[in-house]
Amino acid sequence: MSRLLSMLLCSWLAALGTAAAADAERGAMLYLRLPDGQASCVNCHGSDPAASRNNLLRAAAQPEVLLKTLNSIGVMGYLKAALGDADIEDLAAYLDAVARAAAAAERTVWPRTIEFGQLPPGVASAPHEVRLRNQSAAPLPVSPPRLARGRFMLSHDCPPLLAPGAECRASLRAVTAVPVAAGDFTDSLLWPGPVPVVVGVSAAASGAPGGSLLAVETEIDFGSVGVSETSQRRLTLRNEGVTAVTLGVATLTGPGAGAFALGEGCATGSVLAVAATCTVELRFRPGAGAAYTAALQWRSDGGNPAPVRLLAQGKVPNSELPAPAGGATGGGGCAAAPPASKGDFSLPLWLAAAASALGWRRHKSARLRTAGPA
Ligand code: HEC
Q1: Residue 56 Cα to ligand 1 middle (Å)
Q2: The pLDDT value given to residue 322
Q3: I need a labelling partner for 362 at 20 to 30 A (CA). Which of 92, 201, 217, 253 fits?
Q4: pLDDT digits (tens, 9 = 90+) for 41-55
Q5: How many CB atoms lie within 10 A of CB 373?
């Protein structure tokens, strides 16, 4: 393929990604909460949509599959009345963004959703962190993360260039008013880039104080563990609120999630009275890698604990130290830096491609504007 043609194709694909991401931001919110405030997809398909529980990702970029599913799967029937055509398209765009971001080799972001749960009036929640890691062997350009609606407090420590293997974080806090405006607030965190990352964020403001879960350990380090050994740790959850809390599903997510497992304790459906605690066993068993990290999240009918950070090292004999993960992807891929940095001559091409992609994908120039740097 000629260089010009391949550049045009890359720009067009990047523009398509941007247009999809704009819709995907709304889709991310709909994944967590329906427009009428009812619980949505997350209740059954879980906090990590990339895990594709119950074949969720079949609807990625396929609104018609989702529409068919709403009509054919009984438990999802109630969603028909709540979701319009545009909502269904936005959900499909979001699931597409999730699938693409999960498939991208050079960087990974976790957790993929943040739910603060029910918050009483007049609180600033503990920070819930989302991490981005450069999984490639080259420095990675990182755009600052931003919120679609600005409904949460956001700070981040991401440098413009992230070193190979390094992580940076976006930290989110929910703040509720006094008196509380009862209802839900949803938002979505976007990391712009050639493959945009969209993280749904939600909180529910309750009129009165309720239950609130705290993870006593905010970070658990399993230390250095030999191959074929298993390391165990315990994590304690405590109800810091003023009414009982029922535990929902726990989710392990992140690049090393597969090496960690949840054992006995703090089971879904258990009820924690005021000031009560439960303890869950966590296990780590290394694979072939050297360093592991993951996040552990809980859902509940009260305030949810911040994701707990899990860390561990696999003890690899010195002679067998693996090369750094990933690899430089030289040679003509869409490693797509922002268009302007590709050289002046490519910008008009990129714009033309973006315009045609948008025409193809229908409407929404306003959304394209919001997809630019804040
Ligand atoms: C009340 C629980 C529930 C809710 C809420 C729910 N789903 Fe499902 N969904 C299911 C179950 C259960 C299945 C699997 C059914 C089966 O395989 O027989 C499923 C299957 C699917 C599938 C796969 C269809 C296929 O072709 O295999 C998709 C896509 C999907 N859901 C999308 C969504 C989206 C998007 C939402 C939110 C708008 C949502 N679901 C909300 C329970 C739910």
Answers
A1: 6
A2: 52
A3: 201
A4: 999 999 999 999 999
A5: 8
